[in-house]
Amino acid sequence: MNKKKKGVTLLEVGVSLFIITLTLSIGSVSYRYYKDYETLVIEKEFLNHMYSFINYSRKTCISEEKPGEIINDKEIKSITFRMIDKNGKEIVQSLEIPDKIIFLKEASLKINSKGELNSTSIEWKGIETNNIYKITISVGINTMRVYINGKQEEW
User: Fold this and answer.
1) Spatial separation of the C-alpha atoms in residues 154 and 114, rounded to whole Å
2) What is the CATH number of the domain that holds 29?
3) Which of 70, 85, 105, 143 lies 20 to 30 A from 135 at CA?
C-alpha cells in the first residue's frame, strides 16, 4: 500500500513566504515613493499657481491703471488679490493654499498701477518635505525669480 502524503514541505513554505515578503516590500517602497512624489507635485503645482497669480494681479493693475494688493490670509488659508477698477467695482481673486503648505511670514504685496510691487519676496514651506520656496520680485521690473531651498530654478 502506497500512502500519499498530505501537506506541504518546509521548502515550499519557505519559497511561498519569500515570494510574499518580496512582493510586500516592493509594494511598501513604491507606496512610500508615491506619497513623497505626490507631496512634491502639490508643492510645485502651488509654486506655479502662485507665480501665475502674481502675474495675473500685476497685469490686472496695469490694464485697469489702478493699484491693488495681494494678501495672505492664514485664517481662511488663501491668497487674495484685491483692487478697485475704473468703475469703482471691487475685483477680488483668491488662490487656495493647500494643507501641505505653510507661509513663513505674513505676505502683503502692494502693486501700483504700473504693475510694480513694493515687496521683494514671498516665501513658504512644504510641511512634509521641508522644502522652502521663494519667489523674488525685482521691484519696478517685470522679473521674478524662483528659488527652491536657496537654489535658483528656471521657471
Assistant:
1) 25
2) 3.55.40.10
3) 85
Query: C-alpha dihedral over 68, 70, 111, 52, to 10 degrees?
Result: -110
CB atoms near residue 72 (< 10 Å): 18
3-state secondary structure of 13: helix
| Domain span holding position 110 | 12-153
- Which tens digits make up the pLDDT trace of 106-144? 778 888 888 888 777 788 888 888 888 888 876 555 677
Distance of alpha carbon 144 from alpha carbon 147, whole angstroms: 10
Q: How far apart are the C-alpha atoms of 124 and 97, rounded to whole Å? A: 10
Q: Express each pLDDT in 24-66 by its tens digit.
A: 888 777 777 777 788 888 888 888 898 889 889 989 999 999 9
Assigned domain for 105 exists: yes
Task: Tell me phi and psi for residue 14, to 5 degrees.
Answer: -60, -45
Which among 81, 84, 83, 85 is positioned nearest to 93, based on CA atoms? 81
